[in-house]
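WARN no homologs supplied; continuing
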Amino acid sequence: MRSPLDCVLCLTRQSLEAARLATPDVDLQRQVLESAFQIFLEKGLNAPAPLLATLVHRSMREIAGVADPYYAEKKLFNRLALDQLPRFRRWVAESPTPFETLVRLAIAGNSIDIFFGELDEDMIEAAIKAGLDQTLVGSVAELEEAIRAADSILYVTDNAGEVVFDRLFIETLISEDCGKKVTVALRGAPILNDATLEDAKEIGLSALVPTIDNGSDGLGVLFDITSREFNDAFVGADLVIAKGLANWETLECDPGPLHPKKIAFLFKAKCKFIAEEVGAQLGDLVVQIR
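OK structure emitted
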């Protein structure tokens, strides 16, 4: 999809926040913004926002000389979510609709973002409570049927910390009752607060299922720069479960020659333009099957 004009404002704000996180040097921060503006001028808004963000953050890391500005925040996010994992399990066990609760928790994890408040226990608590009660657009039953019909599932993650919620979902997918073959794909290099293989190992996900990276530092899934291993896993899966807005933005259009049998998108509508595209309200939880 083409980027709305408002994406420039969002990406500019994001660039400045990332630059300030990466370096206290105001001159370097200014260089980051100037580079971002140049990227906007060169690419225009015909490219998806995740591609623009990828180029901006790649430039920012080079200018600031910091490989992963969000490293400490990702560690904190993982720890805070792991601390609450026993409580999440209890909520699922006690729920009259455990599968829907799992889905809501997985999407609630997508609610918790570095750019939407301070990373602390209160933020986790608020996101979870909201996720259990918020409007859910789409069919949980259709998702459950898609999972039931699939033998192999590629689970494409989004943020650090959020992967703890994904782990809870994946534990059910590979359980005796469900018995699915699940592979988890993470980012190939740091970009924003997205999860990498290091995060998967840190939260115990790599000990549960095979984990791969997508071979790139791209935001979302940009097939021009993803690896052969990831592309083969994508096209070979009976079902792809893709988390988060960037994965939706880059996969909601026809993915060219890479056609999995089915894609299930799970995300919170944190952007009003994407909310409108999927028939949701800002803040809704979304399940979309394609």
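Residues 6-64 form a domain with the Helicase, Ruva Protein; domain 3 fold (CATH 1.10.8).
OK
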